Amino acid sequence: MKTGWWRPGRFWPASLAWRTGLTLLLGFSIIQAVGLGIHVLNQIDVNRVVAERAIASRDGAIYRRVASAPPERRAVIVAAINGEAGDRVSLDSSPPFADSFTLPLPTRQMIQGSLLAFPTPEFLQPRQVMMRGSMSPSTLILSFQLPDSPDWLTVRSPFRPSPPWAQPGFASAFLVMFVLGGLLIFWGVVRLTAPVRTLAAAAEQLGRDIAHAPALPERGPVEIATAAVAFNTMAARIRRFVEDRTFLLTAIGHDLRTPITRLRLRAEFLEDDAQREKILADLAELEAMLAATIAFGRDVAQTEASVPVDLAILLRTVIDETADIAPGAARRMRYQGPDHVTIRGRPLALKRAFANLIGNAVKYGHAARVSLQKAERHTMRIDIEDDGPGVPPGELERVFEPFRRLEISRNRETGGSGLGLAIARNAIRAHGGDITLANRPGGKGLVASVYLPE
Question: Helical H runs in 302-419?
């Protein structure tokens, strides 16, 4: 039967391609996340250095402007530039130490290098530079002692390095990489699992139609070509086995009919009428068993081609024909379901299977209520109910064995050979379906459920 790529009620998909693709995609996502984390950490350091350099360059420009001005103008200039770019500039008698801390050595070296790179004449070089930081809020504090005064020029600059994810293209770049990686993963998985799907389809086709199933192409990678050769060899052996068994059954049937005919002729000359009738009855039963055995072997051969079949019409036809044979049970036979349902199958094999099932329901259960409905994805369900005594629970599966007959119903008087259910299950399974039996609640009969793929 066909199954979906995801089974209901399960977290993990049923398809090998989806399982492999999702596993690789999960691994790729973890690698992407680790790479993204490393990139973010590195970018945070880079953005911090860039922010420190920018503050050092800006503070250096402020110091040069103030230091190059006449002493009497410096307070006016400080008041004018105070607040630009969020900086707080002040002239103090000493550098601020309250609520601040000494910056780490790498940070001080980075700021010192940026200040040295800033073009400042020798006579304007500060006598001292103090570099400190504050946490509330995050602030970088640079204090320059003026060259011609004991005063200190202090610049408090907010320290807010831009986060890496705020940069243009940061998220889109990783999103594009993830999408492209996912597409490549699933493309590769689909290509790699295509031979598996081909092999599964060929196996299903072989199970449905041994005689007409096409051979697998023996090309591709070495492993795939080797598997195709092995599959084709196996299919050829199965065909030869079925053909040989069918030929053997046909030959046995042909050879046994001659002595049976001779025995029937000799029985006609018996003077004892009672013995003659018993012998003729035994020969008739033997002929029936022989015919059923040959029919069972021919069903296995599956020589009939698979074509579109209207299952609803076929079921109604079998019901009508069974009603003609058993007119007394016609009122207890009915069909319930859609007017038309088309599937692919072998019409004669399906008709024989349903004729056996419906015939058994009428013969042993005195009724046959047939219902056709959709069971699950790509599967049709046919239920055949009767009003008979049912089957003992331990025999529900064993009655499908060839020549298996229940003593309470399938004896010599009924004329059953014990092959009807075996022939029916063989035909249904050859179509990729199955048959199950279940007793109705309260011992009110038996239900034969047939499952067939659409």
Answer: 311-325, 347-365
